[in-house]
Specification:
alpha+beta
């Protein structure tokens, strides 16, 4: 899956690719900035990592706040440590009701219980004052 971020005038600001290591040549990966690490670009504001537990599995969360959105990425080490199972983004200036869910197509089916759990975790983190 590929997500493109555009400026108001239609220029591409960023490209996010799930499972990029399996799709791109090494020279492109070497020049890329990862969203799970603080980036140098002006668009990135904060990246916070945390761990939660779902049914005995350790789930890594990356809470990314940028100029254009806030997103929570969920990674399950039992599946793959280097790829998100799903991402819940909310556009900047919007409310929680504008949140969407992006599921990694390489993951296949995601249990509804995991999706409901991830939604609640993301909602708690994003609505915290």
């Amino acid at each position: 899956m590929i997500n493109l971020d555009f400026s108001a005038d239609g220029r591409v600001l960023g490209v996010e690719m799930l499972d990029a290591r399996g799709k791109l040549p090494r020279f492109l990966l070497d020049g890329a900035e990862r969203i799970d690490r603080p980036a140098r670009g002006k668009d990135f504001r904060r990246v916070t990592a945390a761990k939660e537990t779902f049914n005995g599995s350790e789930i890594k969360l990356f809470d990314v706040v940028t100029e254009g959105e806030r997103l929570i990425e969920f990674r399950d080490r039992a599946w793959r440590e280097d790829a998100a199972v799903l991402v819940l983004p909310v556009p900047r200036g919007s409310s929680w009701t504008d949140a969407t869910v992006t599921i990694n197509p390489s993951r296949g089916a995601v249990p509804v219980a995991f999706l409901a759990w991830a939604r609640e975790i993301a909602k708690l983190r994003m609505t915290r004052k």
